[in-house]
Structures are given as C-alpha cells and as structure tokens.
Amino acid sequence: MLKTESFSSKGSVEERCKSPLSGGKETAAAAAASGSGYAEAGFGPQRYCGPPKASTDSTTTRSFITYSPGGSIYAAPSGTARYPTSLHLGYPPSAALRSHFSPTYQMGQSPGQSLYPPYSGSGPALDGAGARAHVYLCKQPLWLKFHRHQTEMIITKQGRRMFPFLSFNMAGLSLTAHYNVFVEVALADPNHWRFQGGKWVTCGKADSSSQGNKLYMHPESPNTGAHWMRQETSFSKLKLTNNKGSTQSISQMIVLLSLHKYQPRLHIVEVTENGVEDIDVDAKTQTFVFPETQFIAVTAYQNTDITQLKIDHNPFAKGFRDNYDSMYTASDNERLTPSPTDSPRAHQIVPGARYNVQPLLGDHHFVNNFPPSRLYDGGERAVPQSNGLLSAEDGASQRWFVTPVQHGTSGHKYEGDYSSSLLPYAMKSLTVPPAAASHHHGLSYFPDSPFSHDMPNAWAPRGAMTPSLPWSPRPGLTDAHSEKAKPHLENEPTGAGSWADTQPSCLPLDKSDSYAPACSKQRHLSTKGMKCDDAACVSAGSFSKDAHSSKAMAAYYSFYTG
DNA sequence: ACGCTCGCATCAGGTGGGAAACGG
DNA sequence: CCGTTTCCCACCTGATGCGAGCGT
Question: What's residue A252's pLDDT?
C-alpha cells in the first residue's frame, strides 16, 4: 500500500536540479553557493528539478520529507462544519466532503495554542498508485518576505488576485493517476484583527459564520500526475472577494472576511481514471499547508511595508514605483529585488520603519505556526519565525534543515536548501466527495513519456479518454485531449497556463516575481523559436510548456534519464 | 503566392492611491 | 467621530490582431 520512499540529497535534490537544457550541470545548491543566477538577493526561487530518486543514504538525505501539521487550521468553535454550504466549487456541494472535512479539521484551537502542532508522522499515501506526493511552494522567499511583515491580501467586491499568488511544484504523484488539485482558504485563527500602532493586534472574535466559497479548483483539474508534476501549478487566477452574494465567476472567487487571518491549503485528490473518486478517499487525498502563505484579508492595505513589497514585486503595480528607472534598467544580473533599505522609497515613504521586522502582537501565533520539532536547534531552521525571521536576503548563506523524521514507513528526511526553496510541507488526509468527483474525467497523458524512466511509480499507459466535465471551469478536456492534448505536451501552454500563469519559478526571484513580464516575453518568444535559452529560464516548470521542439524534448528526456 | 516572423497598436484587465461614502 | 469599505483614477501588463518585411 505504502511505498517506501527515501530521497537523498545526492539522489534527489541535486538530481532534480539538473537543468534539462543545461545538461544538468548546475544544481540549485551549487547555483546558490556559487551565486550563479540563483544567488541574487541571497536567495533563489523554487526550482523543480525532476522527481526524487530513491536512496537509503539517510545521512545525506535532504529534502522531500513531508511533515504533517495536522489540524493546523482554526476551526470555528461553534462546532459547525468548517465548510459552509457553499463549499462547492462548480460542482454540487457534497455532504461527503463536508462530513469528512469537519471531523478531520475541526480541531478547536484555543488562543495561543500552537497553530501547528508537531506533526504526527506519517501521512496518507495515494495508495492507489502508491504515491506520496511532495509539494514545494514556489517563490517561497518572496512569501517569506511578506510573511515577515504579516502578509495582507486585498479583497474587493469584484475580486482581487493574490500577490504573491500560490504556486506549487509537485513530485511523487503517480504519473498516470488522475488528480484534482485545489486550494482552500480557511480561517487561520479565531481572532478578528486590527492594525493599530503599526502592529496587527487581535480585536475580538472572528466571524466564523462566514459563508461563501472557500475552495478554488485549479482550472486544469482533473489531470494526471505527470501533468501536475511537469510544470509549476499556479493559482494566479485565484481571486479573493468579500462579496458573499457574488455569483459571478464564483469558480474563480474565494469569499473572505476583511481583517480575518487565513491560511491557504493545497489539496490533492486522486480520482479514478474515469474521474470518479475512489471509495477510500481518505487515502487518496493529501493536504499541504504552508504557514508562510498565511495572510490577513483587508480591503485596504494597512501596513505600508506590505504595500511597498507589493509595489516592488508585483509587475502590475509597476506604475507605483517612483524609482522604476533606476531599479529596472539594470541588466538582469544586476537587478535585485529592491532592497528595502536601499530603496529610496524606503526612506521616503516610511522613514525608519520600512522593512524592519515589526513586533507582531500575536507573535506566538507565528512562532508557533512552525512546529518546533521541525527545526534544528542549531540555528538552522526549516521555516522562519515571525519576529527575527531570517532575512530573506540572507538566504544564500542559509540552509534549511528539518529534523530527520520518520514519515510513515518511509525514511524521508528533509534538508531543504533555502536557496532552492524546496520546502515540502505535510499532508493530511481528507476527503473530497465522490459526488464532486463523480463527473471527473481524466486524461491519459503521454504513455510513452520520457518521464517514465525516472518516475518512482508505475507508468502504465492509460488510453481511455473521457468526456469533459460539465462542471469544470476548464474547457472540455476531451476536446483538449483529442485535438490538442498531444500538442499540449509539445508546444501548447495549457488552458489556464498562460504565460502569466507560469512565471517561471526557475528564474531568480526577482526575475520570476518582479520581472515576470520580462521572462514572459522571453517565454512568449520561445514559442516561436525556443529562444528561451537563458539557463535561468530552464526548469521543469517553465521548460515543459516550451518543450515543443524535439531538441528541447531530447534535453528534457536526457535530464530525467540521466 | 504563401507562410512565417517581427513590431506596433489596441484593448482588457490588474495595481495601489486617495477621496468619498458608509456604518457602528 | 472614526474605522472600514467603495469607487474612480492613472499607470502598467499581457493578450491579441494587423500589417510590413522576408524567405521559400
């Protein structure tokens, strides 16, 4: 049932970090250490470098341990199901889902209680395929930057995109199994928050009776493990709203309450080849929580530090950069994420205050957000803590470690590298209703895929194609498959995988975040002639969508086959 | 003539700021 | 009255369409 997986540094991270196009000569770690490309601003972006390889070398093991902050999300003390009636997203609400979610996640939490209790160890495996998924948060350094100041997300009536937006790389999925991938945004604590005196302070109880959609199904769901793993899974189109009555674009909107703290969670649910969920859904569902993605929903920014970070990093807010010219005319190599203290605005806008780590009331929340047991005592930690959070700028010199932990029967250990941001989080079983998946139909992808060689799990060709989902926000997959699915692999960005969607995590942070458009342009060009030869633009994530030339595919193939 | 690439123009939509409106 | 929300603005990105230029 459970396949034992063990990933070593030599066999996983470094192997994974071989660049398909660069011949695999540069590893993320090496890049970070050498400062080549990924050491900009002291940290690098998440790189997805392929599937982990099995290894029994526990002493050198690094990365890919998963740990379970089970029950980490605040549940309304009322005892009501955490998932309201509008839980559904495009498909009929499922009592099964709610009934499962509730007991699983309704773990009442008293104030001050650790939001993320020590993980319990093993999580469920997708036993159908024997696969235990690993998920890596892309752009984690950027998330951490925001998290240091307590991330705020604007919510508007018409919906506002998140920034940073959620984006993940996945590994460990069965190549041929089909999965639904969706994000849920749940209340993170029982408090109502207010920004007072430059700090976020609690202010009464949260309104836990919030209604409205809390789930956002990735538009490419359902899809095969191969599909999810071969590229970055971005939720850039996800919108946050405070308009409970909004029925417009409900599938794109998550309804939140202002001045409440939320924690996004990623759910991966295995569905059958026919798109129907297995009876044993518990074992087929995995949930991942990244504490650094926690945020407070606001209708207007409260903390000017957050505002400045948004302006500095969000390309759509370029117009608000008053030092744009000086910041962005430098060459790529010279362009750094605007250093808070270096930025002229740092002094112009919030003199003496900007980018200083602020004491956050409720620090205990943040501190406790991260299970102490997940951290080494030696000053190297897996995740930062709120105050005195490690400076993102120090990332190059920092390595992230997580205490080796037995994870079920697997001997996973994680020794993440901050630079590479390969920080997987834990999963917890939950259920998605069969009703929700009853109409799911999968794609059978690439039975002769080059991935097959190096993937840990079975790669049995599946030929059946199924009708598209009536509820799916995604265009009919059948059509997509019959007409375009194959080209999809070769040269076509996926439906929702627009260039904007796939801002390559392979780029240095400032390219992938602040300068996404530049890369986007590059990627756009690449569709016309694979001009994206910048090594920094090479990763499974970005490459896959550009992988439309035989040359590129050959490179990719050689990457995985060694 | 045809197909392809490239550059430019256009337009939809995303962004934070700030003023006005709202509500307790 | 004060905190919060809404609306509009200017600026920007990114997708798309069109035509010119070029090669076959």
Answer: 74
